[in-house]
Design brief:
Fe2OG dioxygenase domain-containing protein; 22% helix; Iron_ascorbate_oxido_reductase; Jelly Rolls; Oxoglu/Fe-dep_dioxygenase_dom; IPNS-like_sf; alpha+beta
Length: 189
């Protein structure tokens, strides 16, 4: 999955007209990527009121964007993943055998000056156990994510505030997104 992500970023670089290896240094040594197995069981009994949304649907995972750089997701044919379209409508992602779903994360969007938009998505209860395997591609903890890579690659001088990926990611998941599993992280300086 790591090699696939690196290749996708090389192809994206070529498509943007910037050097092919623009992103390589971020993932060459000790990336903070994670590979998870996700199990989404159906609600046992009646779901809580805050899980019920439009059209009688029930949420398992509320809408969000991923903090990381790029997410590659194997879905095994399960339905239930929806993305927010440019028209501000939720659309179900069709399943295709042998394919991956790719989401742009907040970090990549930030480093490209918004040229790529982070993918807002959610998971709907489909009434049966659902599984997916996401690979959250993230750079090295020490990589400066404050820089606008698009401007840098084009040789434009743009002022910015340096920020290490690790500090940025921990701040986002603890304070801004308030993920329950990260509530006990120490404060970031």
């Amino acid at each position: 999955m790591h090699n696939t992500g690196v290749e996708i970023m090389r192809l994206a670089s070529l498509g943007l007209g910037i050097p092919e290896n623009t992103f390589d240094y971020m993932f060459a040594s000790k990336p903070c990527s994670t590979f998870r197995i996700m199990h989404y069981p159906p609600w046992d009994g009646s779901p809580p009121d805050n899980a019920k949304i439009e059209d009688g649907k029930v949420l398992i995972t509320p809408d969000h964007t991923d903090t990381n750089f790029l997410t590659l997701l194997a879905r095994f044919g399960y339905k239930g993943l929806e993305v927010l379209t440019q028209d501000n409508e939720w659309a179900e992602i069709e399943t295709r055998p042998g394919s991956l779903v790719m989401n742009i994360g907040d970090t990549l969007s930030r480093m490209m000056g918004g040229r790529f938009k982070a993918t807002r998505h959610r998971v709907i209860d489909i009434g049966v156990d659902r599984y997916s395997v996401p690979f959250f591609m993230s750079p090295n903890f020490e990589v400066d994510v404050g820089i606008d890579l698009m401007s840098k690659a084009l040789g434009e001088k743009k002022e910015y505030t340096p920020e290490k990926y690790g500090h940025y990611a921990l701040r986002r998941i603890k304070y801004e997104k308030k993920y329950f599993e990260y509530r006990d992280l120490p404060d970031i300086k």
